[in-house]
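tokens incoming
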């Protein structure tokens, strides 16, 4: 009976370790996704800024229309 109780205790300890590991992995997965979203949002903001600049330069005949259109394509891909 004592051996069974010790075995059950080890099973509980093992379950605690597995649960802690699962919680750590879930946290890091969440953190990774959160950072990826932040980077994507920043990239989209930069693309929009670039599009505005490219449009202004195109309107002032300082850059080809292709720059503005390419920025629009990249924004469409990023959304």
């Amino acid at each position: 009976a004592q051996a069974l109780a010790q075995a059950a205790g080890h099973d509980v300890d093992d379950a605690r370790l597995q649960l802690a590991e699962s919680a750590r992995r879930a946290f890091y997965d969440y953190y990774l996704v959160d950072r990826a979203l932040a980077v994507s949002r920043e990239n989209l903001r930069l693309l929009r800024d670039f599009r505005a600049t490219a449009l202004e330069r195109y309107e002032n005949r300082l850059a080809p229309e292709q720059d503005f259109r390419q920025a629009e394509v990249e924004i469409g891909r990023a959304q």
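note: The CA atoms of residues 37 and 47 lie 15 Å apart.
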